[in-house]
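Exercise 7.
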Amino acid sequence: MNNQFHHALNRMAFFTALLVAGLILFYRPFLGIASANVVLNGIIIGTILFGIGLCFVEMFKLLPEYRWARAYFSGRRNVPLPPRLLRSVAILLRSRPRRIYASTLNGMLEMIQLRFDDSRESVRYITNTLIFLGLLGTFWGLIITVGGFADLIGALDFSDESVLQTMQAGLTGPLAGMATAFTSSLMGLAGSLIVGFLGLQVQSAQNSIFRDVEDYLAAHTSTAIPDNERVIAAISGDDVNNESKRNVVKR
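Solution. The predicted structure, written as C-alpha cells, is:
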C-alpha cells in the first residue's frame, strides 16, 4: 500500500491548522467582514464549518477501508470486513480466489467507483451551496443599494441648505447594501474554495485506495473465458449456425 492516503490526511490537517491560524491573526478584519450582514454571513460561515466537518467525517470513514485493504493485501487471514465502501468486494474476496475473471474484475471496479462517487456527492453539494449563497448575497446587496439610492434621490430637496447633510445621512443604506454584496460574495467564494480543497483531498485518498484494489485484482485476474460463458457462446454459435442452415434451405 502506498502512502497517498496518509499524505491526503496530512494535507487536510495542515490546511485546517493554517486556516485557524489565519483567523486568529486576522480576526478583527474577519469580524468586520462578517458583521456587514450578520444573518447571511452567519449562514455562510455555518455552511463552511459544516462542509469542513463533513470532509473530515468522509476521510475518517475511509480509515477502516484502508486498514482492511492493507491487511488483506499483506496476506492476513480472517480480516474484519470493512463497514461501507469495500464491504461487497471484501465479501467476494473472503475466500481468497486464486484467479478472477475479467468480467468479474470489471463488475467489482464499477461497484467500488459508484460507491466512491456517491460518497462525494454531499461535499459537491456543499460547495455549490456556498457559491449559491455568495451569489444570493450579491443580488441581495444590489437590491438594497439600488433601493437606497432611489429613496435618497427621491428625498433630496436641493433648495434646502442642509441637502449635503441629508445626502450624507442617506448614503448609509446604499453603502450597507454594497457591503452586503461584496462580503457575502467574498465569503461564499472563499468557503467554496476551502471545502473544495478538502473535498479534493478526500477524493485523492479514495483514488489511492481504488488504485491499490485495482492493482491487486488485476494481478489476480485471468483472461481465460469462464465455463458458463463458454457454454453461452457455444449455444449462441449453434443458434447462429442453425439459422444459417434454415436460410439456405429456404433459398
